[in-house]
Write a structure and sequence with these properties.
The protein folds into two domains: about 5-235, Rossmann fold, CATH 3.40.50; about 250-415, Four-carbon acid sugar kinase, nucleotide binding domain (Molybdenum Cofactor Biosythetic Enzyme, Chain A, 3-Layer(aba) Sandwich), CATH 3.40.980.20. It has helices at about 10-20, 55-70, 95-105, 150-155, 170, 175-190, 200-210, 225-235, 260-270, 290-300, 315-325, 330-350, 360-370, 410-415, and strands at about 5, 25-30, 45, 75-80, 110, 120-125, 125-130, 130-135, 165, 195, 215-220, 250-255, 275-280, 310, 350-355, 370-380, 385-390, 395-400. The protein contains 14 helices and 18 strands. The strands form two sheets. The chain has a 15-stranded mixed β-sheet, sandwiched between helices. It has a three-stranded antiparallel β-sheet with strand order 6-7-8, with no helix packed on it. Helix 2 (about 55-70) runs parallel beside helix 3. It is of the alpha/beta class. It binds adenosine-5'-diphosphate (ADP). The site of adenosine-5'-diphosphate (ADP) has 23 residues, from helix 11, helix 12 and helix 13.
């Protein structure tokens, strides 16, 4: 294993894993702190749920993941967080970074959340979403991690016992040697972190090159773009054509949708006209077992190569109606439980290729299916790869789609590629 990664949430882990596959690294995503033997892969991404947990818990889990990665022989460690630097007052980016720096004995790490493909850039240490400062991008109203300060030097300073410096864009644009010199100087001055400006993908490639010998790199998936080339230059990573090739998983095809995001609603509209589609009515039947039983009865006899779609997804007025009836948390839990039971029933009935729409929904399904690891394959649409899922159940192909990702024909088009 060349690169060992610790990600603070599930879909962020997949995003990073996909970036590494595009760069030519065979990559496996593991769910939760791993225990067993390491998979055969160039990079492993451990997906934790540590973004908003108490800092001490996030640190303990991240250190446990680090120990496993070190035992597996990884040469470099990557701490992955969101490209909008999502963190609470207590962290957890700084506390986890501090703990990893201590455990690795490296004293220093760069921090760069920039992700130009998604319009996240860092300039003079300030994070922008498109043309807006982070603090005016809508992220200031995030329910769990409101980001009210765009100055990442200041934000990270509040989360660490160390001090934070800056590598400005004027340096970054001069290339990797210049970046390396400033990083070294900041480390010698006793800084623990350096926020590194980045606006374009070539900035990220240069930053990656400058960090070739760093024990720890922290950032969004963007800054990982430059890392595969380092391993290739060092003769550690062979060029191969099968990086994204997954084993076949013969079986039926199905889509489960629990996301109510706009893109998912469009995808559902497109699928409705083309393949068998069942829309659940949790308002009429607020009972997970009963809803799931009806869905599985409906699916019986329709399963095959053509995907069928089972969706709880609904427009805002229907969501609000269920929430008014049950309360927000109960409404979400009811739908997640229903789709998790349906997923298990479909697998039992021979489904082996499944698209799941929705971040929380994916978490519920993956956990019900007992999935422990995902080998990352080719992307269907940006940010959503097919994966080969293994765990306590039969191996299968899973595509876990974050709500707003994917083109209009995603629910049918995905299966042309699996
Ligand atoms: P996204 O990735 O779009 O945010 P998630 O799966 O993370 O999707 O979140 C969607 C949430 O909405 C889930 O908790 C899901 O259970 C809930 N949900 C889905 N359908 C409905 C519905 N018809 N009424 C109320 N809540 C729903």
């Amino acid at each position: 294993m060349l690169l060992g990664c610790i990600a603070d949430d599930f879909t962020g882990a997949t995003d990073l894993a996909s970036t590494l596959v595009r760069g030519g690294m065979r990559t496996v995503q593991l769910i939760g702190v791993p225990t067993g033997p390491a998979p055969d892969a160039d990079a492993v991404v451990v997906a934790l749920k540590s973004r908003t947990t108490p800092a001490a818990e996030a640190v303990a889990e991240s250190l446990a993941a680090l120990r496993w990665l070190q035992e597996a022989g990884c040469r470099q460690v990557f701490q992955k967080y969101c490209s909008t630097f999502d963190s609470t007052e207590a962290g957890n980016i700084g506390p986890v970074g501090d703990a990893l720096i201590d455990a690795l004995g490296c004293g220093f790490a760069l921090a760069c959340p920039a992700f130009p493909a998604n319009n996240r850039s860092v300039f003079q240490g300030h994070l922008f979403v498109g043309t807006a400062l982070l603090s005016e991008s809508g992220m200031e109203n995030h329910p769990l991690t409101p980001m009210r300060d765009s100055n990442l030097v200041r934000v990270l300073s509040h989360q660490t016992e160390g001090t934070v410096g800056l590598v400005p864009w004027a340096t970054v644009t001069q290339g990797s040697d210049a970046i390396r010199r400033v990083l070294n100087a900041l480390k010698e001055q006793g800084r623990r972190y350096a926020i590194v400006d980045a606006i374009t993908e070539s900035d990220l490639m240069a930053i990656g090159e400058a960090a070739a010998h760093h024990a720890l790199i922290t950032g969004g998936s963007g800054v990982a773009m430059g890392l595969p080339a380092n391993f290739r230059r060092a003769g550690l990573l062979a060029e191969r054509s099968d990086v994204a090739t997954l084993p076949p998983a013969p079986g039926h095809a199905a889509v489960l949708a629990g996301s109510c995001s706009r893109a998912t609603l469009f995808q559902l509209g497109a699928a409705r006209d083309r393949v068998p589609t069942l829309e659940l009515d949790p308002i009429a039947t607020p009972d997970a077992t009963e809803l799931a039983r009806r869905a599985l009865d409906w699916a019986d006899g329709k399963l095959g190569d053509v995907p069928l779609v089972i969706a709880a997804s609904a427009p805002p007025d229907r969501v609000a109606a269920l929430q008014a009836k049950l309360g927000r948390d109960q409404a979400g839990a009811l739908v997640e439980e229903t789709l998790a039971i349906v997923a298990a029933g479909l697998v039992k009935a021979g489904v082996r290729r499944m698209v799941v729409a929705g971040g929380e929904t994916s978490g519920a399904v993956v956990s019900r299916l007992g999935v422990r690891q995902l080998r990352i394959g080719a992307e269907i649409d940006p940010g959503v790869p097919w994966t080969y899922a293994e765990g306590s159940g039969p191996p299968m192909l899973l595509a876990l789609k974050s709500g707003n990702f994917g083109g209009r024909d995603f629910f049918t088009g995905a299966f042309d590629l699996a």
